[in-house]
Every structure is written in C-alpha cells, then in structure tokens.
Design a protein that fits this description.
Blueprint (H helix, E strand, L loop, with lengths): L12 E3 L2 H18 L4 E6 L4 H16 L3 E6 L11 H19 L12 H13 L3 H17 L15 H18 L6 E4 L2 E4 L4 H10 L30 E5 L4 H17 L3 E5 L12 H17 L6 E3 L4 H8 L1 H6 L3 H14 L7 H10 L4 H8 L3 H15 L7 E4 L2 E4 L4 H9 L3 H6 L1
Parallel strand pairs: 2-3, 6-7
Antiparallel strand pairs: 1-8, 2-4, 4-5, 6-9, 9-10
Length: about 425
C-alpha cells in the first residue's frame, strides 16, 4: 500500500487496516522467497545518538535469537527539516534514553552533554572499518559505553583497523542515501521487508514479524523489549499530581494515546489538564514526507497492537482542527472535555468524519454531550488561539516541542510510548497508603 500522500494537506479519506498491513508484509515475503534471499535486516547507526547506545546493546541478543542477515550502516544525524528543534531533541534524547534504559534493564550513562567531536570521529572510524555484522555487534556496545562515559581512549583493548577519513565519508554518504531511498531519517532504526522499526521501542514489532515467518532460532519465545502494559485496575493514590496532556488534533500519536491517558487518570484519581496546541505544520514547522509516512505507519501498528480504533482517516489539517479546538473550552466548562476530545480523535482518525463540515462536527460534538446550538456560538470565538499559544509556550519551557507530551509532578516526557513514566509518577503517591494497610 502506498502512503505517499498520507497526512498531506487536503487529503480526504484514507483507509489503513490491519489486513492491508498484513497483505503488504505477505507481498514482501513472496518477493523474498522468489529471490531466495535471507531475512535481511538493515540497521542504521548514528554514533552520538543515545537511542543507538541502547540498540547496540541489544544487537548481540537479537542475532542470537533470529536467523537473519544483519547489514549495518553508519549515518549522520537527521536533517534540519526532520529535527526542527534539534537542541531540544538532543537534550531530551539523553534524558529519555537514561530512563528507558533503566526501565528495560539496560545501561546508559547520561553525562548531560554530547560526546566531544574527537571521540565521535575515532569511534566512527573504527565502526566503519568494522561494520560487518559480527564485528560490529561484538564491539559497538563497548565503544559506545566508553564514548558516553567520556573515556578518551575508547579504542583501548580493541583489535582491528580504523577507516580513513575518506573511507568514513564514502561509507556515510552511501548509508545516508540508502536511508533516504528506503524512506527514513533517524538513526537507531531497523529496516526489514518494506517496514521501519525505530529503536528498542519498536523492536518487538520486528520480532513479532520474524516469528510469524518462523525465522526464530529454537527455544526463542516472547520479545526482548515488550511494550509496557497500561494500568489495568484502580489504585488509591494520595493527592496524585495532575496530568498535563499536551496534544494536537492532527497528531495521530495523540489520537491513539488519549483514551489511555483518560483511563489512567480514572484509575488513579488524577486530574487531566487538556493542553491543546496547533499542529506543527500549522505553526510553520516542516514535516518531511518520510517523517509523515513513518509516523502514520507506526501509529497504525501501535494502535492495532493495543486494539485502539484507528485507520479510516480524514486529515483535520487547517479549518477542521481550528473548529475542533474552538469547542474544547466550551466542552470543558460543561464537564464534557474528555468525552469531546475522544469523540473528535475517533471521528477523524478512525471513522473518516470531516470535522470541517457542520454535519461532521455536529456529529462529533453531540455524541460527546455538547449542545449544537451552544457549540455554534463557541465556534465564532477565537479565544482558544491565545490558549493554544500559551500551551505551546509552556511546552517549550519544559524543553519539549512535539506531542503528545506529558507533565505529572516532576516527570516531563514525550511520546505515546512513554505513558508508563506518567503512570510511575502517579503510583508513587500510592506507596504511603499501601504501607499503612
């Protein structure tokens, strides 16, 4: 299935079903069998990317579990168009990788700064010269650990050559071009059979696919890093911090996490503050095609895995988003804020409703409990614009720029796959009550 125009402005309806995903995978497998090719997995590594520090720690275990041919490519950082707030991204990545490593039982030491250029160059030259799968898997983790610990003698105790500057340039130029051609922009990414998998967070999708193809070795079961399940039953918390939920109506990741956020709040007694912002593209920030396509595909996989409705899309960019945001404050005022946000998200991301039309928005509003006559009065107000800008300013002050993002007490994080951090922040307030029981 082609995703070339998915999430472009002026798209009408688009169907993305699990069956289409499976059909796409089956087509890739048929091609592999015709060519009698191995299960070839490409891995793209950016030396100074904290998430790559986690993926290289997992590579030996991945190779031990599956009959795959791993091809390693060393690449540069993403272009400016794919990382519009680069300094914020770099700082957040270090902090997030540290928390993620602790969460899954890996090690990442966040020094609060990036490795120096000389150390990066030395590590890159060695890894380029030793980028064949076995050599890379056996050395990359040790080099990466030393790099982030500030060890200047990062090659101590290692045998093998280092590549010349010209060889490094040639390798990275070719690797960057391959990554572009295959349709991605980040490091810490795996590519297999027409699909991309980012970091250890999405490695379970790759493992799931390889297991469905019987590519696992004897005795292999489960996943290296399965997704963290959501809280399933009520927990009595003592004054849990509120959850600031920063979201956009045009963010598919926001759409698939909204119900989970509200459910977490219900189970813990936390309040949710709806901190809506305008979509990046409506704030003048670039969203390259490769980024749009990966996000849409990845969102669908994550939604299917958690059985969240998603797939019949009607892009709300522009007027539909503005009309949708105009009703949030009214919905909150009558106690229907969460119901309205869920209704809007489901409408445009899983039911193909055109929120730019009165018919579509009325359907979204009324099923959430809003009075359409009163809602039409709210539509002519534009006070929501000031609030959206205030929310954006607050998001930036927290060191973040994208959505969905969250603040709960001292925890500030980004991504639908980081709801476990919000849950941890809330559950800390339950500990005193448990000890008294």
């Amino acid at each position: 299935m082609s995703l070339k125009t998915l999430l472009l402005p002026h798209i009408s309806r688009w169907l993305f079903s699990r069956q289409r995903l499976l059909n796409r995978r089956a087509k890739a497998e048929r091609k592999r069998l015709v060519r009698q090719a191995p299960h070839r997995v490409h891995y793209f590594h950016q030396v100074d990317d904290p998430y790559c520090a986690l993926t290289v720690a997992a590579l030996p275990r991945l190779l031990a579990r599956y009959n795959i041919e791993l091809r390693v490519h060393l690449v540069d950082a993403p272009p400016e168009s794919a990382a519009p707030e680069r300094e914020k991204l770099i700082a957040f990545s270090r902090d997030d990788a540290e928390h993620l490593a602790r969460h899954v039982g890996l090690t990442f030491q966040n020094p609060g700064k990036q490795p120096n250029a000389q150390a990066i160059a030395r590590a890159t030259a060695y890894l380029v010269a030793n980028h064949e799968a076995e050599a890379f898997a056996n050395t990359a983790d040790a080099i990466t650990q030393k790099l982030w610990q500030g060890d200047q003698d990062i090659l101590a105790g290692l045998s093998g050559p280092s590549a010349s500057p010209a060889a490094v340039t040639a390798h990275k130029t070719s690797a960057n071009a391959l990554r572009d051609r295959l349709g991605h922009y980040l490091g810490a990414t795996f590519y297999y059979g027409g699909e991309w998998y980012w970091g250890i967070d999405r490695l379970y999708h790759l493992e799931q696919r390889l297991q469905e193809l019987n590519a696992q070795k004897p005795g292999v079961d489960g996943y290296l890093f399965p997704p963290t399940p959501d809280l399933a039953s009520p927990i009595t918390c003592h004054q849990p911090p509120p959850i600031d939920f920063f979201f956009s109506f045009r963010s598919p990741y926001s759409a698939i996490v909204a119900e989970r956020v509200f459910r977490l709040a219900e189970l813990t007694g936390a309040k949710v503050n709806l901190r809506y912002v305008l979509p990046m593209v409506m704030r003048g920030l670039p969203v390259p095609r490769a980024k749009r396509e990966y996000i849409s595909h990845d969102t669908a996989r994550e939604a299917f895995e958690r059985q969240i409705p998603f797939g019949c899309l009607n892009d709300p960019v522009g007027l539909p988003t503005e009309r949708g945001l105009a009703l949030i404050d009214y919905a909150v005022r009558i106690g229907k804020g969460q119901a309205y946000v869920l209704s809007f998200m489901r409408g445009v991301w899983s039911e193909g409703i055109d929120a730019g039309s009165d018919k579509g928005l009325r359907r979204i509003a009324e099923r959430a409990g809003l009075n359409w006559t009163e809602a039409k009065l709210a539509l002519v107000q534009d006070r929501w614009r000031l609030q959206a800008e205030r929310n954006r300013d607050d998001l930036f002050r927290l060191g973040l720029w994208g959505v969905p993002s969250f603040r709960a007490g001292n925890v500030v994080t980004w991504g639908q796959d980081r709801l476990w951090r919000v849950s941890e922040a809330l559950l800390k307030t339950a500990a005193p009550l448990r000890s008294q029981a």
